[in-house]
Each structure stands twice: as structure tokens, then as C-alpha cells.
Amino acid sequence: MPYNSLRPVREKKGMTIAQVAGKTSISIRTLQSYESGERAISADDLRKLSRVLYASTTELLQPTVPPPPPPAPPPRPVEPAPVREAVPVTPAADLADRLPGDVRAEAEVHRPPSGRPSFGRPPSPRPPRPPREPFTPRPPGPSTAGQIDQIRNLGRRLGLDDSALVERIGASLESLDHTAARAAIAVLRKDMEESGTWQPRVQESPDQEAEYLAKLRDRRVPIDVVLINGERFQGLIESFTPYVVQLRDVQSGADVYVRKLAIAYYRTEGPAHDAQ
Length: 276
Description:
Number of strands: 7
CATH topology of the domain at 206-268: SH3 type barrels
Helix content: 25-40%
Structural class: alpha+beta
CATH class of the domain at 206-268: Mainly Beta
Strand order of the largest sheet: 6-5-4-3-7
């Protein structure tokens, strides 16, 4: 396809291809194809270019010789690769002999488990750890008020007065520390198990609780019931269900119905033994 004169006219007018594209709304890519001769200029674009460049259509379509292609850059010379000389490897044993006298006197050849020698000073042994101080247990603290109340409650259920209780545990309650109080509680609990004394607390089992309440009802043992809200009731058990306990007040003879879910705890007013 012959080249047109669009590029020489544009350069003569001192306009860039981007300026022409902005004034004619023709894309830069299309203008480049017009100037290179890849495409023929359409009639619509020819009128736009003639109006913007102030040139006639004949002047724009006048054939011209394409510009010579730019010269190709000269080939880049290929530099030869540097030749590296082979360095002989000196065995480790010979290397140790070549060390200076003062360095060789301090350095030693160590052979680790892998069998390969390594040069350097031997690792210094770690200093021995100092012996640990013997553990000294802390002295036990004083007994708590809860422990003393539990000891007295167990003694009361065993029928022991204060002097008998002191003789049984081997010390006065005021002199007991925390550890001695725990030991005293364990001794009194063991005495209750061996003597068959009923304990104020029963396991969370419906059968064992029913058996415990039935014994109190049949033997007419008065009990003290404390509710969660702090109310207290004292009386004899007349009947009970898995949910309600019926009590009869000893003094007034009135019946009181207590829901078991509202009971914090209950206990006998005095010691009760299976032998009675």
C-alpha cells in the first residue's frame, strides 16, 4: 500500500500525533496505522484531518516514500569466560602440620563421631551445678473455725463431753494446728464408722436417705431442720416422700411440711446410736 503524506503534513504543522488525536477524536493507534500505510484513511477521518491540519485531502493523500528504517544496533561483543585455576585441596592432617608452632601447640585435631577431623580448642567442661538446698516444709497454720466446729459436732454425735473429747484426740482444741485438726477429724470419723453411729450427712442417694429418715421416724428421734433461707424447724418425722418431709412440732403438735429442695441440712438434736 503506498504511503500518504499525513505524517509530513503533521510534522510540517508542528503537531504531535497525540495533539491530532485529541482534536479529531481519532485514536492514536489508528493515526499510526494511517501514517505507516497499514490502513487507508477513511473518508470521515480524512475530512477531520483536513480541517485540523489546514490541508486539502489531495495534499494528505499524495503518495510519498516511506522513511528508511532505523539502523540496527551493532552486535554486542561476547566476552570470554574467565578461566579459573584449580586449587589443590590440602588434607586436614597436612594442614595441621603447616600451622605455626605457637598455634599448633594450642590447636588440636578432634575427630567427631563422623570421622572427619575438626580443628580448634576443645570445648570447656561445664561447671558443676551447685547442690540444691534441702526442701524445708512450711509449718502448718492454725486450725480454722470450721475444723473446730466439725470436731465438736462429731464429738457430740459420739456422746463425748469436752473432757472425753480432749482425751480422745490427745490435745485441747485451742492447741490444735491445721494438720492436727485434720487428723482429729479423721480419728472421730473412723470412730463413728466403727461404732455404727449415724452421721448427720448422708450420701446423695434416695435409698440411703429414705433409710436414714425411716430410722429417725420409727425411733422418734427429734431433728433440727435448717432451710436455705435461714428458717429453722424442730420436730419429729411423721412421714416423708422423695420431695416433702412432714414434721410434727413437739411443743405445739402442729404439722409442718417442708420441701426437700428448700432444706440446707438437717441433723439430730442429740447423739443417736444403732444400739438404742
